[in-house]
Amino acid sequence: MNRWFYKPDKMFLARLPHDGDLLLSIKNVFKESGIQMGFFTAIGAVKTAHVAFYDQAAKTYTDFIIDEPAEILSCVGNVSEVDGGISVHAHITLGLKDGTAKGGHLLEGTVIFASELFGVALEGQRLERHFDEITGLKLWSS
Ligand code: ZN
After folding, report:
1. C-alpha 42: how far from chain center
2. What is the whole-number distance in angstroms between the Cα of residue 105 and the centre of ligand 1?
3. Distance from the CA of 135 to the center of ligand 1, in angstroms?
4. For the chain, which residues score pLDDT lower than 70?
5. Which helix (H) or strand (E) holds 106?
6. What's the CA-to-centroid distance between 90 and ligand 1, angstroms?
7. Rounded distance from Cα 25 to ligand 1 centre (Å)
8. 128: closest CA among 68, 87, 75, 78?
9. pLDDT (0 to 100) of residue 37
10. Who contacts 62 (Cβ-Cβ below 8 Å, separation ≥6)?
């Protein structure tokens, strides 16, 4: 197991824009604030969602659209570096009209109805994502 220790630097709340892209809006908040390492949660609602499921055997993502208004029951993720820029890795659980939940790995194409973000900037070593042969994913390594 690899682990890295951080101190919380600053914490912030942000209201994300109506009709904005959820993943890109989260990324913009961190980028505009000059934060390279962080953690966040978001709640709210979306008009439509684009998420993915990672097939561990095939090592590929299968994406799908949830094309209906839904509550963001939980959206959690982190911010680190990849290929010289920042990378936002987020997962989302959506509550549908009938009370069931769907979700997955958050992709671009998820349209915000309203959303509130709580972010934490972390102070310490910058982590970068690199391709991992075993999982086929870009994982942290120092
Ligand atoms: Zn993921």
Report:
1. 9
2. 4
3. 12
4. 142
5. strand 101-106
6. 6
7. 17
8. 87
9. 96
10. 52, 53, 54, 55
